[in-house]
Amino acid sequence: MEPLLLYIKLKESVYRQTETVLRQVMQEKIKTIVLINQNDKAILELQHYGETMLQQLIYQIINIRTLLKLLIMPI
């Protein structure tokens, strides 16, 4: 089976449907590549992308990791 590409916007939080998709692909054991998208748009909107953009990127990565941990080991 082909891997799934899951796009997440840099400046938005992880939506409920993202959680649903991740839950489904994990159940079906589909390899998934998470792509954080619209970095260029964030640069244009922020006009300075250094620390602020890095913080947003780290925030999204932490959100996805937390969600994956919850899906693997539910409370």
TrEMBL record:
Protein name according to UniProt: Tr-type G domain-containing protein
Species of the source: Paramecium sonneborni
InterPro entries for the chain: T_Tr_GTP-bd_dom
UniProt-listed Pfam families: GTP_EFTU
Residue ranges occupied by any Tr-type G domain in the UniProt entry: 5-61
GO molecular function: GTP binding; GTPase activity
